[in-house]
Design goal:
This protein is α/β, with parallel strands linked by helices. It has helices at residues 10-18, 28-52, 62-69, 90-101, 121-144, 151-157, 167-193, 198-201, 260-275, 295-303, 335-346, 362-365, 376-388, 391-402, 426-436, 459-469, 475-491, 504-524, 529-558, 575-582, 593-618, 623-641, 643-651, 660-678; strands spanning 76-82, 110-116, 222-227, 244-249, 280-285, 289-290, 312-316, 320-321, 358-361, 440-443, 451-453.
Length: 679
């Protein structure tokens, strides 16, 4: 069983068609269900292979971009979104902000916007501190060509010793690190207290906005320009201009739908159009810091290409993570997907938008079809707005209206303009809508990763994250395949060809070739043997839980019984969780119906495997071996896949074990299923 439909394919179909049980024969409907599951995998395999047939791998020539366009480079607006200061710590958020502020790009043409859907004064305070620190950090990065330009990542992977041959850099390295640690300690101290000290509040009048905020889900719009790049006085310690830096917390009200991240993105699009109106928009998640200061120039190599640049709506970079363990316990890296499948999409019109690490052409996000052009008068009017409106007017009037709850009423925002509403995978649908309007997209995977984020460190976080991305019925054939053959084995109903039949050969061929190909491909892209096995495990876990709940919620929503929801993945972990993650010990810990499903299926296959082995041992004529070997092997593979589940159920004694309530429920459900099968 593998992530690319590695289950019986064409040969299986032929075998099934020639072994159709007669009407009324025991197991006929179980056989038909298995056959339909295999047909689904055939379709899935065809779709995946059609994507993989034409991968495109690109490279850029940034020196040519500099020669031709350095004096006329477009303005870049960068959006960073956060929603909860507890699970998305402000220190992590400002590291992302500082990393994109330090891009190798003219600072007067950069504008960074932080959207805080948590409406937290703690996040605002952290951004205020980051704005002050940027006056030292940016010249340090550019002077010494620092990489990465995320302070936390840079200082954690470097020491002053390598710079002792350059006394000036060694001295500045120590000074900047001390200033960073001091800033970090002030922010973390405020987080522990849960409030900002009176001394700190006096530093900026922006804190007065929180005098009117009592509930983060019900407050006025807050817009604060912390660094105004249009002001000639906004300079760093060396007198060089600084990028614009703005804090936005859009208005919230209990009677309005806020549409989660999509709503925040659309508010940023409108607000930025009044302040900087950048031609290109980059959006990143708050944990996804810039790992390559030249990625903005990489993207512009595509947008500014004389031959095909006008066709491109967005340039998508891969989603990569900095905290992947050696064997990638939760299959977070998605290496094969990022290296092969998205490159394949690029050869078929371009990848879809994946929600972060994406450079957009503003006009494509705002509903414009490919080929439509702004008139010169419209362009001139937009530019005049950017120049003539002063910061005070933008803050206190225009932008607060643009980010109000009622602004989108009776408008096309979320439908024909901006990021689409009404679906947890709003990014994918937005990308598809852009493609339908005639635009193309580009996938670019540079040697030095452009962005690095924080991957989930517990099983539940990983499953919840994938639930948000899963709306297709992939779960149904997988659930069928991991449960019905086991039940039929207990009941004595064979579903696969006998060993003595020649039809066993197609099964052996498909299973061995698909596993060998999948393993070879995984290792080719930097994986390990154990990492591949973890990938197979998570393939099963996600399709039997994440995909099932995601698909169920979609159906309920279409029937009007549920509303869209958006679960934020926590970016923090306690010390014990972090230790278990580093040791690659699977983390359960919390109660979840997903764990009940996993544990029930694991126990069901364990009971069926033991029962099948018992029948085989007691069968003197080897009839069981001949008729049920494939079913026993399937149960055995699933038992091996579920070894961490058994450990969490019965052997793990720390806080990462499966909760007792889940253990009792799964034992009862698995026992009931076995009893019904036997009797």
């Amino acid at each position: 069983m593998g992530r690319d439909g590695q289950l019986p394919l064409f040969e299986t179909k032929a075998a099934k068609l020639t072994h159709l049980p007669e009407e009324g024969e025991v197991g006929r409907w179980a056989w038909i269900g298995l056959f339909l599951s295999e047909l689904w995998y055939i379709l899935y395999w065809f779709v995946i292979m059609s994507v993989r047939w034409n991968p495109i791998y690109r490279s850029t020539f940034k020196d040519r971009l500099t020669q031709r366009y350095e004096k006329v480079l477009p303005r870049i607006d960068i959006f960073v979104c956060t929603a909860n200061p507890i699970i998305e710590p402000p220190t992590m958020v400002i590291n992302t902000v500082l990393s994109v502020m330090a891009y190798d790009y003219p600072p007067e043409k950069l504008s960074v916007y932080l959207s805080d859907d948590g409406g937290s004064c703690l996040t605002f305070y952290a951004l205020l501190e980051a704005g002050q620190f940027s006056k030292l950090w940016l010249p340090f990065c550019k002077k010494f060509q620092v990489e990465p330009r995320c302070p936390e990542a840079y200082f954690s992977c470097t020491t002053p010793e390598p710079h002792y041959d350059d006394p000036l850099m060694a001295e500045e390295w120590s000074t900047i690190k001390k200033l960073y640690e001091d800033m970090k300690n002030r922010i973390e101290s405020a987080m522990k207290l849960g409030q900002i000290s009176e001394e700190a509040r006096k530093q900026d009048k922006g804190f007065e906005e929180w005098d009117l905020v009592s509930d983060p889900r019900n407050h006025q719009a807050i817009v604060q320009i912390l660094i105004d790049g249009r002001d000639g006085k906004a300079v760093d310690v060396e007198g060089q201009p600084l990028p614009t830096l703005l804090y936005l917390s859009r208005e919230k009200g209990p009677k309005y739908q806020h549409n989660f991240k999509a709503g925040a993105m659309n508010a940023l699009i409108r607000v930025s159009s009044r302040i900087s109106n950048g031609e290109i928009i980059l959006n990143v998640d708050c944990d996804m810091y810039s790992n390559n200061s030249e990625s903005v120039r990489d993207a512009l190599c595509f947008f500014k290409d004389e031959e095909a640049g006008h066709e491109i709506a967005f340039v998508q970079f891969p989603q990569c993570f900095s905290n992947i363990t050696k064997n990638d316990l939760y299959a977070n890296s998605l290496n094969v997907c990022m290296e092969v499948e998205l490159a394949g999409f690029d050869g078929n019109g371009g990848p879809s938008y994946i929600g972060t690490g994406c450079f957009h052409r503003r006009e494509s996000l705002c509903g414009k079809k490919y080929g439509e052009q702004c008139t010169k008068e419209e362009t001139r009017r937009n530019n005049n707005k950017r120049i003539e409106e002063n910061a005070s007017l933008v803050e206190e009037a225009t932008c607060k209206v643009l980010s109000s709850c009622s602004y989108e009423d009776y408008s096309q925002w979320g439908k024909e303009m901006g990021v689409m509403y009404g679906c947890p995978v709003e990014d994918t649908l937005t990308g598809l809508r852009v493609h339908c309007r005639g635009w193309r997209s580009i996938y670019f995977n540079p040697e030095r990763k452009a962005f690095l984020g924080v991957a989930p460190t517990t099983l539940l976080q990983s499953l919840i994250q994938h639930k948000r991305w899963s709306e297709a019925p992939n779960c149904l054939p997988t659930l069928y395949y991991v449960s019905i053959p086991s039940i039929c084995l207990l009941k004595g109903i064979p579903l696969f060809p006998k060993i003595s039949s020649l039809w066993i050969l197609p099964f052996a061929h498909v299973i061995s070739s698909s596993c060998a190909y999948s393993l070879g491909e995984f290792i080719c892209f930097g994986g390990t043997l154990l990492g591949w096995w973890n990938d197979q495990r998570m393939w099963v876990f996600k399709r039997t839980t994440s995909h099932f709940f995601g698909f169920s919620e979609t159906i309920l929503k279409q029937l009007g019984f549920a509303r869209s929801s958006f679960a934020i993945t926590s970016k923090v972990a306690d010390e014990e969780e972090s230790k278990r993650f580093e040791e690659e010990s699977m983390e359960f810990g919390a109660f979840s119906p997903m764990f009940t499903i996993l544990a029930t299926l694991a126990l069901l296959n364990l009971f069926a495997f033991v029962g099948g082995i018992r029948k085989m041992i007691m069968d003197a004529e080897a009839r069981v071996l001949d008729s049920f070997l494939l079913q026993i092997l399937l149960c055995g593979v699933l038992v091996f896949i579920n070894l961490p589940v058994y450990k969490g159920l019965f052997f793990q004694k720390d806080t990462g074990r499966v909760p007792n309530s889940v253990t009792y429920q799964s034992l009862a459900l698995a026992s009931l299923a076995c009893s019904l099968a036997l009797y």
